[in-house]
Write a structure and sequence with these properties.
By secondary structure, this protein is of the alpha+beta class. The chain is built from 14 helices and twelve strands. The strands form three sheets. It has a five-stranded antiparallel β-sheet with strand order 2-1-5-4-3, with helices on both faces.
Length: 491
């Protein structure tokens, strides 16, 4: 079954070409024959008139029909391409030089004869052929008068039966057939060239189809297939379509890969979260059961200790749930940003004030450099506060006693660089690439006594992206960490 574009085009072109070739052959033959008839009739237009004027038998009317028949015979011998007839005024054939069985008509239509006599410029004009009921022939005609009385017409067929027979034989001539064969061969060669051109034109489409089928069969994994290289320059629409398809396939492959990675992260996150949820719930359940079963046997101090432990687990559970909802809200992309201009120094000192007691309990120094920041930024104050709060909480958790946490503010062109620098345990180089992934626990965080939700850095990263910034980190194990954020300065 012919399904390919090239096959359909080839069949359509071949069929159309055959029809056009036939129409051209018919038209050229008809035009040549029309021109031939016109030239021959024009050449012999006055033949009948000259015969009528030069023949003594026709000058003063017709008196001797047998003699006229002999004259016609003689003229046909001298000019076998002509047939001579004498007609009466009504068109009835009176005299001719031929065997009686050759003549099929008893009369001819006078309308073409009168038209030729009256309008000789209208040639070619065709009249009835006495030897055939259906055939028309070019002719020459002249009226024959006796005095003022019309005696009839001299009717001369140009290209008679003998001429047709000889012409048909000539058409079978080997040289003529050679010319026809040469013309036919030229048409076939032209057809083959057209088919080759169409094959060249459709070749990129076939290549594109193979690419599409290969990508589809590979489930849009472009790494499993070898796609064609399409020209980057030029105005070939198929090559442009091929480049766009390759780019689209690669984009789809990247999106599928990203979806698979996100699904893997989601499953891992759910596994971690289920563990983190189960741990405080199990502890709460255990202590509540003890309080329920041994309440009267417990001392006031033991009862208060169990209640305090339950409360700590409740707070831990609440923090984890709050962070899960916050991260889900950020991932959903429905968070609005309300930018405004405000002085950065006031915000930094307010944030440090929230952690002053906690830092003091661990003998950790908190400060801002420079201490008096006059710069103003244009961003969302609530989201920036959330980011810095998470970073300082993270720094406090990983900074030992007598350590130091500093917020550095440095202008950079139209930006303001804000960094949170600590003298804590630092981060291993192999962990830096994953430090902002949800639920990733760096090696310096494993084994911590103080439990935490572990989503703070992931939330801070998403928030920084909403602020058209990017949270970055520099760290070395045992030498502290530096988290940096670039903010737009207010104008």
């Amino acid at each position: 079954m012919m399904n390919s574009l090239y096959q359909r085009l080839a069949i359509s072109v071949t069929f159309s070409f055959a029809i056009l070739a036939y129409l051209f052959y018919w038209w050229s033959g008809s035009l040549a024959q029309h021109s031939q008839f016109q030239a021959e009739q024009k050449l012999h237009l006055n033949l009948a008139e000259h015969l009528a004027q030069d023949s003594p038998l026709l000058q003063d009317g017709v008196y001797d029909k047998p003699a006229l028949k002999n004259l016609f015979h003689t003229l046909m011998v001298l000019g076998p391409a002509f047939e001579f007839y004498f007609l009466d005024p009504s068109g009835k054939i009176l005299t001719y030089s031929a065997k009686p069985d050759k003549i099929k008509r008893q009369s001819v239509d006078l309308a073409p004869i009168n038209r030729l006599i009256a309008q000789p410029e209208s040639i070619p004009i065709f009249g009835d052929d006495p030897r055939n009921f259906d055939r028309k022939k070019i002719f020459s005609a002249s009226p024959i008068y006796k005095g003022e009385n019309l005696q009839g017409y001299l009717y001369v067929i140009i290209g008679g039966e003998i001429y047709d027979s000889i012409y048909a034989t000539a058409k079978q001539d080997q040289r003529l057939m050679g010319h026809i064969a040469w013309i036919g061969g030229s048409f076939v060669l032209l057809l083959l060239l057209l088919l080759a051109l169409f094959r060249g034109f459709t070749s990129p489409i076939r290549r594109l189809e193979r690419d599409i089928n290969a990508v589809r069969n590979a489930n849009f994994d472009t790494e499993k297939v070898q796609l064609n290289q399409w020209q980057a320059s030029g105005h070939n629409e198929v090559h442009q379509l091929g480049r766009h398809f390759v780019a689209m396939a690669e984009q789809i492959n990247q999106q599928i890969g990203q979806l698979k990675r996100n699904d893997k992260i989601r499953r891992e996150l759910l596994a971690h979260l289920s563990h983190d949820l189960r741990t405080p719930l199990a502890a709460m359940k255990g202590y509540v059961e003890i309080l329920s079963l041994k309440n009267e046997k417990l001392s006031v101090e033991e009862r208060q200790q169990y209640i305090s432990t339950v409360m700590r687990n409740v707070e831990q559970l609440k923090l984890l749930i709050d962070q899960i909802f916050e991260l889900a809200h950020l991932e959903d992309g429905q968070v609005s940003v309300n930018n405004e201009a405000f002085p950065i120094g006031e915000l930094l000192h307010d944030i440090l004030a929230k952690f002053a007691l906690k830092a003091q309990s661990k003998s950790i120094t908190l400060n801002v450099q420079p201490e008096f920041c006059q710069q103003a930024v244009f961003t969302d104050i609530a989201k920036l506060e959330r980011i810095l709060t998470n970073l300082i909480e993270n720094a406090l958790r990983h900074t030992p006693e007598n350590g130091k946490i500093t917020i550095l503010v440095e202008p950079l062109d139209d930006k303001l660089k804000v960094s949170v620098v600590d003298t804590g345990t630092g981060i291993h180089q192999k962990d830096l690439a994953y430090i902002f992934d949800a639920r990733y626990r760096a090696s310096n965080a494993k084994g911590e006594k103080n439990q935490h939700a572990g989503l703070g850095l992931a939330i801070s990263k998403r928030l920084s992206q909403l602020l058209n910034s990017d949270l970055s980190v520099k760290s070395e194990l045992g030498h502290g960490s530096e988290f940096t954020l670039l903010l737009a300065q207010a104008r």
